[in-house]
Design a protein that fits this description.
Radius of gyration: 21 Å
Shape: elongated
Oligomer: single chain
Order of helices and strands: HHHHEEHHHHHHEHEEE
Strand order of the largest sheet: 2-1-3-4-5-6
Distance between the termini: 57 Å
Number of domains: 2
Largest sheet: 6 strands, mixed
Strand content: 15-25%
Low-confidence stretches: 1-35
Helix content: 40-55%
CATH class of the largest domain: Alpha Beta
Structural class: alpha+beta
Number of helices: 11
Number of strands: 6
């Protein structure tokens, strides 16, 4: 490679490195939006690294860990937090850890920027006024062009503005998981996969397509393992 090309490449990599480091866990809120893809890049790198090192956790280990009192206590807290959400479900990472009392599950979650914004929008006195005041972030998530945005605002079409955001937010759910990996770049225990909470009805068709876990609010709690269009109830 030509020296000038090498130098340009090094400068580019250094710039990317500075942005990535500036996006490391710390003050998350209020950061410039152009750093979002660097946060997600860091999260996706950590995600890939963990997945490559982690073999599938056996079903018997998951069953044993799921019945531990520490696991139940953690799930009680998570479902309480889930009750406070009008929109979205709590999701995150799940690990298997152990101490002198046996094996148990740890759950790592992070506030979803998309879900937080949706919650505030649903609670706002005026959706149109709220979206207008937060135009930059709204367009960042929905990618709606200026002319369409102003058209919907002028029509006072709260329903269309809300629908556009909710639809885009659902489509970026995978980015929220990368954010969880980014925030929790240090975890305890063996990485088992990702999970989300359900109230009832078992895993949906969409849930079954992804490799992960669904934890349902039953008495006692239920645990499903999903993959390739199927769901197996472990507990």
């Amino acid at each position: 490679m030509h020296k000038r090309s090498k130098r340009a490449l090094m400068v580019g990599l250094l710039f990317e490195g500075v942005l990535a480091v500036s996006a490391l866990p710390g003050s998350y809120e209020g950061r410039p939006l152009f750093l979002d893809h660097h946060r997600r890049a860091v999260g996706n790198f950590v995600w890939g690294y963990r997945s490559a090192l982690s073999n599938d956790v056996p079903d018997d280990v998951l069953r044993r860990s799921f019945t531990h009192p520490r696991t139940k206590s953690s799930l009680d807290d998570l479902f309480c937090r889930d009750d406070a959400l009008t929109y979205s479900e709590i999701a995150g990472l799940m690990t298997v850890d152990s101490d002198e009392s046996g094996e148990f599950l740890r759950f790592y979650v992070a506030s979803s920027v998309n879900a937080e914004f949706a919650q505030r929008m649903l609670q706002a006195e005026s959706v149109v006024a709220f979206v207008s005041d937060n135009k930059e972030f709204y367009q960042h998530i929905t990618t709606i062009p200026d002319d369409e945005f102003h058209f919907l605002v002028e029509r006072n079409d709260a329903g269309a503005l809300l629908y556009r955001y909710m639809n885009a937010s659902d489509c970026t759910a995978i980015q929220d998981l990368s954010t969880v990996h980014y925030v929790h770049w240090r975890i305890q225990g063996k990485f088992a996969g990702y999970f989300h909470l359900h109230d009832s009805g078992g895993p949906s068709v969409v849930d079954k397509e992804s490799a992960g876990f669904v934890i349902e609010r039953t008495t006692p709690y239920s645990l499903y393992r999903t993959s390739q269009g199927k769901a197996r109830q472990l507990m």
